[in-house]
Each structure stands twice: as structure tokens, then as C-alpha cells.
């Protein structure tokens, strides 16, 4: 299993509410939703190495 690095994220409460709702709509955890958002942003900007 791949190791994951943890970190503290300071985020605006309104942004957090929006992420929580989006995660619930997609049946994901908040952590899973943030990973998905970051992954897609990296992929779209071609900054993610493909396997």
C-alpha cells in the first residue's frame, strides 16, 4: 500500500462547507474529495507523472 503524507490545512469555513457538500454529493469522504480535486488539477495542468 502506498504511504500517504499527512499535513494541516487551514481553509476558509465557507470553502470547507462547499467541499463537504460536494464530497457528500459524490459519496466520498472530505479527504477523498480533496485528493480527487488535487489529482484532477494536477492532471489537467500536466504536472502529474503518468504511471
Straight-line distance between termini: 16 Å
Q: What would the average pLDDT be, to the nearest integer?
A: 94
- Write down the overall geometry: globular
Low-pLDDT regions: none
The SS-based structural class is: mainly alpha
The share of residues in extended strands comes to under 5%
Sketch the topology as an H/E string, one letter per element: HH
Radius of gyration: 12 Å
- What's the total helix number? 2
Which percent range fits the helix content? 40-55%
Largest sheet: none
Count the beta strands. Answer: 0
Architecture overview:
The chain is 55% helix and 0% strand. It contains two helices and no strands. With 51 residues, the protein is an all-alpha fold. The chain has a domain at 26-51.
Topology diagram in text:
Layout: H1 13-25, H2 30-44
Helix pairs in contact: 1-2
Characteristics of this structure?
0% strand, 51 residues, single chain, mainly alpha
Provide a concise account of the structure shown.
The chain has 2 helices and no strands.
